[in-house]
């Protein structure tokens, strides 16, 4: 399996074709963050929940984004957690995606 280096205090959107269409993980996207001061090597791509759990075992902040959540808000949430170096409650509400209005 290929590896990806998640640099210290960095946040990465792990979504893409495999996460969204092939893996059938039950969530739209996966966002990870490295709260440590050391780089962490993680496996990619994400094919199943076992890979996601391996991230958590390495100390990576993992956020499973639902289909109705805003990607920008979710990224900002994980960035705030990584920046403060404290794992806060990941269950608070993230603003929903704005529905596009046709003109």
3D architecture notes:
With 103 residues, the chain is an alpha+beta fold. It has one domain (2-84). Helices cover 28% and strands 22% of the residues. The protein is built from three helices and five strands; from the N terminus they run E-E-H-E-E-H-E-H. It has helices spanning 17-22, 49-57, 71-84, and strands at 2-6, 11-13, 29-33, 40-44, 61-65. Strands 2-3-5 form a three-stranded antiparallel sheet, with helices on both faces. The longest helix has 14 residues, at 71-84. The radius of gyration is 14 Å and the shape is globular. The N and C termini lie far apart (46 Å). Pfam families: Ehbp. This is Hydrogenase subunit EhbP.
Work out the number of β strands. 5
Mean pLDDT: 83
Q: How is the quaternary structure best described?
A: single chain
Uncertain segments are none
Euclidean distance between termini CA atoms? 46 Å
Summed up, the domain count is 1
Strand proportion? 15-25%
Run of helices and strands? EEHEEHEH
Radius of gyration: 14 Å
Protein name: Hydrogenase subunit EhbP
Organism: Candidatus Methanofastidiosum methylothiophilum
Topology summary:
Blueprint: E1 2-6, E2 11-13, H1 17-22, E3 29-33, E4 40-44, H2 49-57, E5 61-65, H3 71-84
Antiparallel strand pairs: 1-4, 2-3, 3-5
